[in-house]
DNA sequence: TTGACAAGCGTATAAAATACACATATAATG
DNA sequence: CATTATATGTGTATTTTATACGCTTGTCAA
């Protein structure tokens, strides 16, 4: 029993979140720079060790707040990573989340106890990352792309509402694909994720765009 | 630092798998009965503690083999469960998997060090389960239903090939829904998951059904 | 007013999902 | 050996959804 116990002694849990944003049609992810070993000086995704007294999602949110000052972000758990050697210190597994947020809301990119700074990186210009965070990031982006249809993941990106052209630009950036203006509108409205506010954008030179808001509830639609 | 370290000391990792089968149109799940505390005498899903020297999926498969004798099962990771109080002993999180298998392949439902016996339960007649396994089971079934289309999750159920009517019965059991024979066939063939073998079933009284086989590779199809 | 511009609205066509008729292969029957 | 029963396999018409693209509308600037 002693021998056996050793086999699962000294395990730990990371909660890691890939925080995405879209700026001028470019999809970016938030990275922070480590100040301590292991992986001192390396860029990594937001995250850290889960505390014993908090649930997974709460831990992920606490880490986000600690290291970036961001609150009120919707995050989605998508996969858990557990390669034996993913951490050089002890056996750690990482519960992976992703979220999308308006980068303008991130005012404080703080220096913390364990990080020197934070910054947004375009997803096609990612530096080498510590731990297995490159793998986590790759899969997070894939999941984001899969789940962006039929969910209100983008809610945190548009806390004050969004216009169709804005929304389309974000979809096009994340999915790396162009859509027809008119069909995009029809599709979005049929998905039943957003609703009309009776407001319009103040804009220059052309017809102002209607402002929509994401609904609260998410409806799962079954295929087949 | 000492105080802080205590906050994430003594954590452990479960790997839990909901193993489903379909018998005579009834979807069933494999449960095992615990022989030790905590939850002594309670039914639970297959699983246990992850060892330090094994990856998540390997650990889940080892637990399946240890407690049921089943090898060669395809399993899919779907969610990680981490409620603070999900284990009364220490802080444990559970990485959840599901899989589908032909119950006829399960010959040995062994008594092990930690379990007295194992049995298949129809999913609408589940006894009270230990830990948070009722929640895990519910979500596993939901994920199975979501992912059964467009994946070869059912491969382990039909190692020797499958006919269209057989396959349809399984889909109908898992999705709890009836399909039109002819449209089901068209849909399945268009999904490109199975391929024709040039064999047919030996059957009585009516036209014999063609035998198909699941392909090896899984192709992700993008919606939108 | 008019032109430029981008948003909004509508319609025709193509593709996919659904409903349902017909043909075929086996075993049992007279 | 044709006939019938049964469940499989194949085909076609209809409906729904997705895609392609024309036209209209609201704002600013000239």
What report would you give on this structure?
The structure is a homodimer of 224-residue chains. With 224 residues, chain A is α+β, with helices and mostly antiparallel strands. Chain A folds into 2 domains: 2-147, Alpha-Beta Complex (Nucleoside Triphosphate Pyrophosphohydrolase); 158-214, Winged helix-like DNA-binding domain superfamily/Winged helix DNA-binding domain (Arc Repressor Mutant, subunit A), CATH 1.10.10.10. Chain A has helices at 2-6, 56-68, 133-147, 164-175, 181-191, and strands spanning 11-23, 26-34, 43-49, 75-81, 91-100, 115-122, 194-200, 210-214. In chain A, strand 1 and strand 2 (26-34) form a beta hairpin. The longest helix of chain A has 15 residues, at 133-147. In chain A, 33% of the residues are buried. Residues 219-224 of chain A have low confidence and may be disordered. Chain A binds chain B through residues 7-13, 49-56, 77, 79-80, 82-84, 91, 93, 95, 145-146, 149-150, 175, 187, 222-224, and chain B through 7-13, 49-56, 77, 79-80, 82-84, 91, 93, 95, 145-146, 149-150, 175, 187, 222-224.
Fold blueprint:
Two copies of one chain form a homodimer.
Chain A: H1 2-6, E1 11-23, E2 26-34, E3 43-49, H2 56-68, E4 75-81, E5 91-100, E6 115-122, H3 133-147, H4 164-175, H5 181-191, E7 194-200, E8 210-214
Parallel strand pairs in A: 1-5
Antiparallel strand pairs in A: 1-2, 1-3, 2-3, 2-6, 4-5, 7-8
The structure holds a DNA duplex (30 and 30 nucleotides).
């Amino acid at each position: 029993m002693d021998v056996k116990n050793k086999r699962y002694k000294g395990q730990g849990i990371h909660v890691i979140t890939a925080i995405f944003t879209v700026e001028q049609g470019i999809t970016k992810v938030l990275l922070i720079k480590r100040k301590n070993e292991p992986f001192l000086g390396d860029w990594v995704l937001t995250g850290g060790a889960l505390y014993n007294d908090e649930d997974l999602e709460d831990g992920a949110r606490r880490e986000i707040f600690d290291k970036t000052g961001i609150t009120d972000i919707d995050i989605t758990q998508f996969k858990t990573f557990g390669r034996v050697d993913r951490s050089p210190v002890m056996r750690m597994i990482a519960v992976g989340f992703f979220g999308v947020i308006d980068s303008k809301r991130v005012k404080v990119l703080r220096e913390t106890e364990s990080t020197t700074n934070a910054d947004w990186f375009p997803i096609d210009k990612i530096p080498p990352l510590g731990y297995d965070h490159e793998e986590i990031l790759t899969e997070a982006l894939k999941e984001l792309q899969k789940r962006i249809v039929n969910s209100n993941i983008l809610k945190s990106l548009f806390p004050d509402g969004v216009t169709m052209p804005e929304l389309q630009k974000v979809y096009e950036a994340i999915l790396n694909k162009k859509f027809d203006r008119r069909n995009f509108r029809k599709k979005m409205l049929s998905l039943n994720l957003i609703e009309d506010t009776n407001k319009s954008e103040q804009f220059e030179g052309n017809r102002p765009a209607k402002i929509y808001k994401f609904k609260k509830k998410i409806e799962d639609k079954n295929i087949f």
